[in-house]
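Recap from last week: sequence in, structure out.
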Amino acid sequence: MAYPTLTDKPGAIETATAIRRAEMTPLEAVEAAIARIEHLDAHINAVVVTDFDRALDRARAMTVEGPQADQPLFGVPMTIKESFDVEGLPTCWGHEAHVGNIARRDARVVAQLKAAGAVILGKTNVPPDLADWQSNNPVYGRTNNPHDHAHSPGGSSGGSAAAVSSGMVPCEFGTDIGGSVRVPAHFCGIWGHKGTWGLISKQGHDHPLLAGRDAHDGALSIAGPLARNAADLRLLVELTRAVPLEAHGRRLADCRMLLLIDHPSCPTDSAVRGPIEAAAAELERAGVTIDRASDLVPDLAAQQGDYMRMLNVAMARGMPGPDGKRASATDWFDMLDTQARNEAAWAQVFDSYDFVLAPPAPVLAVAHREGRVFDGTLTIDGTEQPGGSALCWAGLATYPGLPSTVLPVGESAGLPCGMQVVGRRWGDLDCIAAAEEMGAILHG
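Predicted structure tokens:
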């Protein structure tokens, strides 16, 4: 089955503009999105919780009310990752034991999107506990990559990316601690943004065991948008940000960039290396300055080890790790000290460079498998590598809490390839703007 390219279906801003111009009504926009979901999702299985009746009721009311000046997403149909609470819908994080966990209120991001005029059609698939680069669980089954149904759309925001990539909805919201926004964007050929840590609230994005009680906005983890273009990413960040952001507005030709394509913790497959190197060469022909190495970069192998230790403790929330040991408070504060030193080292990098370019993952969309990607191996240029080592490019920006925008740059054997544009802390809008200008150079 053929699926639409990014330009085949309108984005969020384009849809909202058409509604404001009376070229369509909110009801027509929502009905069209529901029709796309019903047509495409039999093959993809991305939207696993539907809320069509309430969405249609809301769209009818909005059609009568007419566009509101303070609602830039007025009438725009959206879905959202299953792990966010939506009042009246289940939040089970892929666990059969929690299918009866019905949210009593909207997550903060959901409330912000609704306030901006978005119409939520349902929720998209995740792996259990959001802990895999596949989106497959005992409750809702497996989500397929729209470009090749034998491959994963990524995880943990895989259903989110598949819904956007296939054209079911123009935009989505996911979360990312181990690449869970960036990797699905990369696997599915769309745009995604991992925000600076703390930029966007994750209130109402809590494990079902918390039974609806608010919790600490977990270490390393962020909420971030997925979309079909950079302009929509920018709008979604602006609508949901918790702190003011400023953009420097520098043209790419005035920027200095650093390309990192080799990582000591895991090799980068030639199917990823090829499109990214080709993109970098095209950017250089357009006048962009790109270095291939710098002594300023922290020890990446050490950073990966520190990231994985902190990631495992954060995901386990204090439960014993694989070695049976439980992290102490002293262990945790030592980890925070090490992380702070890493953050300072990256700040020095960005005193000399405007952006760091890197793969979102060392491989393209992985083939479906039983069991988690991280518990097995990955074949990279003919050699087997530990699945967990593939998290190295996710940790590049996650561990120091930096923003990173993923844009599609090419493909290999029919599977998309993305590139992440990492920037200084709170430089989210600059990352998105730089990625947007790169996309214009690469794709016209």
